[in-house]
Design brief:
Elements (H helix, E strand, L loop, with lengths): L20 H5 L2 H10 L3 E3 L4 E4 L2 H9 L4 E2 L28 H12 L2 H5 L2 H18 L1 E3 H6 L2 H10 L9 H10 L6 H8 L2 H10 L10 H10 L7 H12 L2 H15 L2 H9 L4 H11 L5 E6 L3 E3 L2 E3 L4 E5 H4 L3 H4 L28 H18 E6 L4 E3 L6 E4 L1 E6 L1
Parallel strand pairs: 2-8
Antiparallel strand pairs: 1-2, 3-5, 4-12, 5-8, 6-7, 9-12, 10-11
Helix pairs in contact: 6-19, 9-10, 12-13, 14-16, 14-19, 15-19
The chain binds 3-methoxybenzoic acid.
Length: 403
Amino acid sequence: MTTPTDLPATLPSLPDDPFDAGVLTDPYPFHRRLRDAGPLALLPRHNLHAMGRFDEVKAALGDWATFVSGRGAGLADFARDKPWRPPSLLLEADPPAHTAVRSAMNGVLAPREIRALRAGFTQVAEEIAQHLVERGAFDAVRDLAEVYPLRVFPDAVGLPATGRENLLPYGSLAFNAFGPDNELRRAALASAAPVQDWILASCQRDALAPGGFGARIWAAADRGDITHEQAPMLVRSLLSAGVDTTVHGLANTMYALASHPGQWELLHEQPRLAAFAFDEALRWESPVQTFFRTTARDAPVAGAVIPAGSKVLLFLGSANRDPRRWGADADQFDVRRRAAGHVAFGMGIHQCVGQPLARLEAELVLAALARRVRRVELAGTPVPRLNNTLKGWASVPVRVEPA
Ligand code: OVM
């Protein structure tokens, strides 16, 4: 086994644990030190190589043959450590196995399929926005970010009506499980069994309503695009990655806007900026902060070499604030910025397959609120929500002034 002392001494080394509560609560000072240390650094605390600059993170995400996913997208190396669940056929797979599976999922979540949901999703977004504006003060997490995705996504998948309260805990579990064996991961796994049982049952063909994403995955198996053994695993991918991510994305966008009232004013004057505000919020406070890869061979990076078989931690949230890419004002939240090109959805063959769905949800609910609300402000102290992978909030109290 490789021990921290076996690591080459030439690379900059940071003693920090990126999964400790302090860094998870406010990762940005650590990100800056990581980027400034160099394009590639060591984190001996977890025997890791790490990248925090935009160019190197993007290049590693694009080089799937060197930086492989099949040995896990978390700290665990599936070549040595037993995965906490059967690995994802999408996230934790490489070509050639990954290719047919991804192609089938591209079809299920194609922009054309997503557009068909627009009318129904709009109606729910308008209804929720109307209700919140009438209340005047609400929690942007509990009353909005956790409400809207759960009103639209489970029906779009075709999930059973009962048990949907398991979706958020399962997402939280899956994203905590990418991290090291710390308190967060242990607590998540300790109460996981009933949640996992419901998820597994909900992935079966007879649990899924006709016409939904789940049924369409099974139909892809009937056509022979994927196997019938793969179908429930791909429904599981939807349930793993499709809820907590959008909840955090919406919560972070609302936090960004409520803490920058001038930015909300821009959005109110021009509700069609909603899609841009969402992109900028994803850049500024990326819901998925990190993913791991494993080097399948010696990997040259910026004049150094990462030895084959190394775990590499890619800091998406840091790349998205790298002043080398975004300029001296990278830490500023500005909805007028050209934020496209951020890596909050990843990059390359594993780039978020649900992205069109996430964007539709965010755009509709933000625009519905932007039209009705002239001013937003924080009405209390936001409470962070800690997770080994996701950055977000448990509570963001806001007050809104109707237009
Ligand atoms: C999956 C998956 C994909 C992306 C993220 C994720 C829990 C899971 O295929 O299960 O996070």
